[in-house]
Amino acid sequence: MQEYERQHNRSGREMTREEAVKTFEAHRRQWEKIQSRESLIWEDFPWPMFKSPSSPEDLTTAAIHGYMLSPFHSQDKSQRDRIKELIKRWHPDRFNHVLSKVKAGDLERVSEGGGSVVRALNDLLRSSE
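The structure assignment produced for this chain is given below.
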């Protein structure tokens, strides 16, 4: 069974196509909001997983890969292009600008989480070559 088939919503059951699509859309909107917010906390980030993580340890490579490789992800771009797009968002060069808005109490956790995300995405990009 592939990881995206094991992704579950908060009730513990497998996500439907509609729920997955809503998650992708909510994440897109979250990125838009982040740009205009003056102050951010962990929960403000659209972590690329179906189940919201509560800590950097929850940001597993398998869960991120499952999200990125979901058959319900937008079909207007190739998987490789979607991965590259997210790498750009989470890459330290760009993410550091966002980190400057994170409240001190969440800064270390968000920074560590962003690093976990970009490493998982880079691994996925390399494996897709």
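Interim note for the steering committee: Residues 1-6 have pLDDT under 50 and may be disordered. The longest helix spans residues 104-127.
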